[in-house]
Amino acid sequence: SEQTYIMIKPDGVQRGLVAAILGRFETRGFQIVGMKMLTPTKELASSHYGEHEGKPFFGGLVDFLSSGPVVGVVLQGKGVVAAARMMLGATKPLESAPGTIRGDFAIDMGRNVMHASDSVDSATREIGLWFKKEEVVSWTSCAAGSLLE
Ligand code: GTP
Ligand code: MG
């Protein structure tokens, strides 16, 4: 089944939003198959946001992501890449719809609480960057029969 990479950013951890954010994905029916807390090095943060290298906000973005602990999660389920982006909301929190994570929890562009991979290819790259193969766990939920036809 499809997998994506989501991450509670340092502001989300500091604000105590980890459970509230992950709870939305669990209650919807997506499965957590990998999870870790760490303070990213600048190198890891730069590599994660490599597509933005050279942009004026890149330095600040990398400094922010490596400023404190984050919670990185591999989520699994049908259509999870696009679904996680919809649940996350627009990049600019003031343009994120109410009901989305950013629309409900954030007001600032640089402090927008969570990351989610923007495509299947990005998800593959990011899961490989943040997790070793053996840190992604294959398990079958006993609720699977109630969630999937
Ligand atoms: P992520 O899930 O964190 O990757 O956000 P995103 O996919 O919604 O946005 P994008 O990948 O385009 O940008 C990554 C992060 O850089 C955003 O979440 C913002 O915090 C920040 N960012 C993007 N564009 C700008 C900008 O124009 N100005 C500033 N200050 N920050 C920006
Ligand atoms: Mg992005």
Describe the fold and architecture.
- With 149 residues, the protein is of the alpha+beta class.
- The chain has 8 helices and 4 strands; from the N terminus they run βααβααβααβαα.
- It has a 4-stranded antiparallel β-sheet.
- The radius of gyration is 15 Å and the shape is globular.
- The mean pLDDT is 97.
- Guanosine-5'-triphosphate is lined by residues 52, 57, 61, 91, 109-110, 112, 115-116, 118.
Provide the gyration radius in Å. Answer: 15 Å
Distance between the termini: 14 Å
Low-confidence stretches: none
Heterogens: guanosine-5'-triphosphate, magnesium ion
Judged by helices, strands and strand pairing, the structural class is alpha+beta
The tally of strands reads: 4
**Which descriptor suits the 3D outline?**
globular
Number of helices: 8
In this structure, how is the largest beta sheet organized?
4 strands, antiparallel
Give the overall pLDDT as a whole number.
97
The strand order across the widest sheet is: 2-3-1-4
H and E order: EHHEHHEHHEHH
**Strand residues, percent:** 15-25%
